[in-house]
Amino acid sequence: MGHPQKQLLHDHEYLAQELTATEKHEFVDGVAYAMTGAGERHNRIALNCAVRLRTAARGTPCGVYIADMKLRLAHGRVFYYPDVMLSCEPATADTLFKEAPCLVAEVLCPSTASIDTREKLQAYRAIDSLHYYLIVDADRMAVTYYSRSNRGEWLVATIERDEKIQVECGSVQTSIGLREIYEDTGL
Which terminal Cβ of the chain has fewer Cβ within 10 Å, N or C? Predict the structure, then answer.
C-alpha cells in the first residue's frame, strides 16, 4: 500500500471516489491508501492463477476476479483489491465488491509483502467463506498457502515442486501447482 490520504472517509465516500480515481486505493478504517503498480512477472503469475480457476469455474455460478474487484471486509471498514479471488456467493445488486470469497491469492512484491503476510492474512482468515489464502512469491518459485480444515482450523503449508493443491469451492473443483502458477515467468 502507498501513502494514506489525509482525511478520514466513510465507506460510501471511498466507493464513490474509487469510481473516478485515476489510481486504485485500498481502504482501512477510514483511510485510503494508494496502490503501487505491478510488474510483468507479478501480472503473469496472477493471470496464470486466474486462468486456472476460471477454467474450472466455467458453467458454475462461481466467478474469478483479478486486481480490479474489491473485497469488502469488516462491515465496510476495509476494502482490498486481491490479486485473484474466487467467489461462489450469489449475485447482488452491488457490483463494486465481493464479500464472501472462497479463495484469495496475493502475489508478493517488495512494497506489499509485509501487508500481505500479516495484515491481510489476519483479515482474510476472519472471512467465514474463505477456505484458501495463497501467498505467491514473484521473485522465486515459492507459494505458501493457508487452508481451513473441516473443523475450522487454519493449516499452513507450501506447494512443493511437483505438488498440486486441491481447491474445492462450491461447485468448483480443481488443482493448481507451481508449474501452472509460474508458467511463462522465466522462473
Answer: C
Phi/psi of residue 158, each to 5°?
Answer: -120, 150
E strands, the chain, are 25-28, 31-34, 63-66, 70-73, 78-80, 84-87, 97-98, 101-108, 132-137, 143-148, 154-158, 164-169, 172-177
Q: Indicate the pLDDT class of residue 3, thresholds 50, 70 and 90.
A: low
Alpha-helical segments (H) within 58-126: 113-114, 120-125
pLDDT at 92: 72
Give the three cell numbers for residue 167. Answer: 481447491
Q: For 87-106, what is each residue's pLDDT tens digit? A: 998 877 668 899 999 999 99
Q: Cα–Cα distance between 162 and 147 in angstroms, integer?
A: 19
Out of 57-66, 108-117, 139-148, pick the least confident. 108-117
Q: Which residues pair with 109 in a beta bridge?
A: none
